[in-house]
Queue: 3 jobs
Job 1
Amino acid sequence: MATTVERLTYAAAQTARVAFYGAHYLVARVVARDAFADADTPSRKFPSLRATLKGMRALFVTDLKNAEQGLYPMPLDLADEMRRARASLLYLADIPRVAERRRRNGHDEVDADADHLPRYYRQNFHFQTDGYLSDDSARLYDFQVEALFAGTADAMRRRAYVPIARFIESRDPARMTLLDIGAGTGRFLSFVKGAQPRLKAVALDLSEPYLERARRALSKHRSVKFLAASAEDVPLDDASVDAAVSIFVFHELPPRVRIRVAREIARVLKPGGIFVLADTIQYGDISDCDGLIDAFPTLLHEPYYESFARSDLGALFGAAGLKLIDTDIAYLTKIWVFEKKAGRKPQGRKRS
Ligand SMILES: C[S@@+](CC[C@H](N)C(=O)[O-])C[C@H]1O[C@@H](n2cnc3c(N)ncnc32)[C@H](O)[C@@H]1O
């Protein structure tokens, strides 16, 4: 159980986060007010401020409770928060560039030398400067996500760790491997290694600059491997990982690629292993949010988002051999937990 001081510090830190990142989001919104005005049509249902704050509060109450139960350390690294907040000026300087790209629908402006990467990937998702393919983009990414979610992104990511923590509870973490697919800058694995330093982890991502950032973020931890590779062709052996996770990635994959990635995950997981997928809520999960889901793809250049928000992930992964065993909603993030049935033959080929 946390001390009163820890609880108060947690509440103050999260409130400060919401105010700080929320203010940045508002600045971005003011600069791009024409785009938001277009998105805000009377037929769309958006959550009220009251409902938004209620949703955030519920997220933080559960986050605190999970930390108190010992699932992960209390998120009270204030020095780290301050360091991360220093990206504010970079973020603010980039807002007009993003707004201008959105105005002219400039979503095809990433590094021309990146033609070894899949075509669907070489886009300016979120109208982001350089897409996922520069050091500047990697430096800004975490801040942009926190601003978009008004300071709640880390707490939503931590929720994806809960089923993994429970899975590890009765096992020896030093003998287990967790694969993070689309690990980005390593934010999630930083929480995981903070909670379970002995667990082996693999960070896989197509972006070298993001992986480089992840390497730095995780440099104080042992037993982390970094793979610059695609999720549809994972360079790991069949049945070689105990658990896998993927956070905020699936909505950026075209439907045909989602099927290939689901098969790859089923292939590399050991029988009895789990896969945790965390991504945005879908249509109908929170009725007041359907308008947000409608507006998201055009505001943020998310070409595959609508199909994701309508897709039946239980059926998609079921066809690959993974059974849906649980779901959870953490504010604007939904978490699906899948299990690979024990004794099931791998779907793909064996790697050398
Ligand atoms: C929206 S970011 C999510 C990053 C991180 N998981 C998080 O929690 O913020 C999507 C990430 O997935 C990576 N990605 C997208 N498609 C991929 C693919 N086919 N294979 C590997 N990584 C991919 C991108 O490079 C990017 O780092």
Job 2
Amino acid sequence: MVKLFISKKIYGLEDEPSSPANFFFVKNGTVAEIGYCKNVESIKGRADEVINFGNRVVVPGFIDAHTHLLQTGLTEIDTDLSEAKSISDVLSILSEDRKKGREDGYLRAYNLEIENIKEERYPTPFELDRVSKEFPIYVKTRDSHSCTVNTKAKGLTGKKENILRGSDFEDVSLFFHKLLSKEKKIDAYRIGAELAAKNGVTTLHTLIGRDEPEDEELKILMEIMDDLKVDVVPYYQSRNIKLVKRFDLKGIGGCLLIDGSISSRTAGLFAPYRDERRNKGMLYFRRKELDRFIAQANGENLQVAMHAIGDRAIEQLLSVYETVLKKNPREDHRHRIEHCELLNDNQIERMARLGICPSMQPAFDFYWGGKGGLYERRLGVKRAKKLNPLKKIINKGLKIAGGSDSPITPLNPLLGIHAAVNHNNKESRLDVGDGLRMFTTYSAYACFREDNVGKLGTGYKADFAVLSEDPFDIPKEQIKDVKIEKVYKEGIRI
Ligand SMILES: [Zn+2]
Ligand SMILES: [Zn+2]
């Protein structure tokens, strides 16, 4: 069965966008030939089926290099607080789900944004008790680095503080995570994958599990992976090297935390936060511990991925990568730094020298960058400008893998591309080609699949999205409004 796809412009992203193709043949789910032909009528006879997208634009299926797919699905299922503008909003949204709480024996809510709450604070356990004293309630902030709970949950987890950050937050999150049933997790994966497909994503890197010895998470995902709507590349957030090898994964880690987040003031900084003068954030690892783990993983030929946001955290991670790779050099390790937000020129230089893969989320700047934004408030104008220096990194020849960190920002690559092209700091803006490459070829590279996905070239999987408009042609401020009209996976519409 040979299919011929025709469209006014097809960006295979092999070359510069100046010469788009207008047809490609697909055989057995793979691109057999792609090119430009003045008279497409003349080649129609070579196909069993012809699909013509008219004046639409075709791009390779997007690849999101950093998602938490389980949490993405759960956010759709559990209580969403993103619309809450006051403490009473929070309580009334939670109260609407009281019945669900009773049935499940717990209530989980996400996306609390303190900045949007009139009172500019978390709800207290006492306030949450008004929703229920019988079952535990968990309210997590949008950045996923702090939470608050009701009195019942405080008792069950043995926590004293009302607002939980750092390791207390991790403990409480783990407690609530363990309450999830297998069925609910499978549902969440399915829903997450469907959401991805709708937004033009055909492959996603997903970070799963927690830094603990159990492998249930990974087992569930491996069991259902082939039935999901999109291809999934799992990264297991664990230091359990044996386990990752057993499942034959190429990489280990993900949001394995070197530090926290800027929003929760836990990202590790060289200089203190502007709005908390004695605080320089935190580092989760002792140097020795980190050395040992990365040396082991590197020795086992694994790609390592770690979450590092602040300059002090990136410094710790980079210097461990340097030490380890000096002792045990590897040709093509592609060790990653997830987020990689606040870094200086020297660090970029060293990343390029080492061949590190930065895995970044441009939509962070879209939401928190700019004048008066969260980044400025936390770090001051001068430092905030240095965040997410996409252009500088690309100019050093590094391939930045693009991601959403969904559910932190929407699982929507066009928004990510828009954010990269319209960066709040003009000097950090990417051109549209690099924006697209972040979410296609560069993300494929970051998971060793660059010969298979991320491009529409001969021998590549026929994964692609049909766009309503040409992102190269429209005003840059409109990229996020381009519609995903159709999505194909291996030549079949999904
Ligand atoms: Zn992270
Ligand atoms: Zn993450």
Job 3
Amino acid sequence: MGDRQQTLKQSFSIQGEALHSGKMVTMTLIPQPEDTGIRFCRSDLPGKPVLPARPEHVIDTNRCTTIGDGTWRVRTIEHLMAALHGLGVDNLLVEVEGDELPMGDGSAWFFAQAILETGLETQAKPRRIRKITAPVWVENRNSPRSYLLALPGDQLHISYFFTSDNSSVGNQFYQLTVTPETFQKELASARTIAFTYEIEALRWQGLARGGNFDVAVVVGEEGYLNDLRFPDEIARHKILDILGDLYLLGPVTGTIIGIRSGHKMDLDLVLRLMENIR
Ligand SMILES: [Zn+2]
């Protein structure tokens, strides 16, 4: 990643089904001036309200990351945020005609591919990288042995430990130093995990209505129900989610270690990091 801020060369729109609502949504990515950061806009609402993608605007972390202000929201921002963090897009307005981003293929590849085809524009000002200055960790009292740690470091390095009682899935570990190259090659196309027993429960809650077998690693009693893109795809996707949620702080350097963590702990860590980042 270069030292200077970047935006897109030009605007583009993409359309797709939303994971939780099952509706078709159109999203338009619009280049922005330096120092404006990433902002989300509900272009289908009167007055087109806008919020910066900042930790204080996150209103929900149940299964996905949602920003909003109590009167409107945009759900499932994390995979687009991961693509922006991974590829180094600093300034962008994301207009969404609905309350959720399109899910694409369930990974960040849908977004990354469209951004790379459009091209990045290097801007004059230097990128403001946030450095983790002291060790910080969070845990989840409802999920034993789940931790998320952040340590100082000159690059962004993320490790993740995934554990499962399911014998086909087993335990998985993955780690990498995030650069635009490693992001595209190793992370962008990793999809989320869905257990068949969870899919029913999620639909009961009105979530995951748009999901199908292609947009997730689906696991049943007997093991994987579809083909994997990586043997450790689940651990890689967890790193993708962390990368996206961390981008609520802007570009970050440091070492992150996730152990059985999820979106809620990502946000807890991000909030703690606000006091320990420079
Ligand atoms: Zn995810």
